[in-house]
Amino acid sequence: MAEFIRAMGVDPGLAKTGYAVVEVSDKKGIVRVWDTISTDPKDSMSKRLQKIFTDFEKILKKWNVDILILEGIYVLPKYPNAALQLGAVRGVVSLGAAIENVEVRELKPTEVKMALTGNGRARKDQVERAVRKIFMFKDRIRPDHASDALALALVGLSRYGMIKW
């Protein structure tokens, strides 16, 4: 990999897809942006997926992302519909990355939690606190989906030897 890398963490969801862009400089992560792509629950599934795809592609192009760190699927068995929705969102995100020739790597939520907190079953607030400490942010990272995306980018870059904390 080149010395200059720009990674995007993505926490996929139909209502809100969190994303964060982190650059690597001297083995340290520099946060460029974090936010969510939100969809209207009144819209059809196809319309919501189109919005995620269109917004996501614009973000990829704007930030010239090299690597995408995508959260692996985790859905409770009692919510099978959520798994289908999550799979559809991951599909449009993966397609957008492929169109832009962005490498996609996947991390399980438990891997991210373990790397940041030492506990694979850590709560969202514990992960957010760890990310905030590493990046030296004073204020809380909101919304949660964007915080999760930052965690994905951070751990993904670390796992592949690009940054250290």
CATH class: Alpha Beta
Averaging pLDDT over every residue, what do you get? 94
Helicity level? 40-55%
CATH architecture grouping: 2-Layer Sandwich
User: How would you describe the shape?
Assistant: globular
Count up the helices.
Answer: 5
> How far do the termini sit from each other?
19 Å
Point out poorly predicted stretches. none
Key terms for this structure?
165 residues; alpha/beta; Nucleotidyltransferase, domain 5; five-stranded mixed beta sheet; 5 helices
Q: Could you walk me through the main structural features you see in this protein, from its secondary elements to its overall organization?
A:
The chain has 165 residues and is of the alpha/beta class. The chain has one domain: Ribonuclease H-like superfamily/Ribonuclease H (Nucleotidyltransferase, domain 5), CATH 3.30.420. It has 5 helices and 5 strands, in the order E-E-E-H-E-H-E-H-H-H. The chain has a 5-stranded mixed β-sheet. Strand 4, helix 2 and strand 5 form a beta-alpha-beta unit. Helix 3 crosses helix 5 and helix 4 crosses helix 5. The longest helix has 20 residues. The two termini are 19 Å apart. The mean pLDDT is 94.
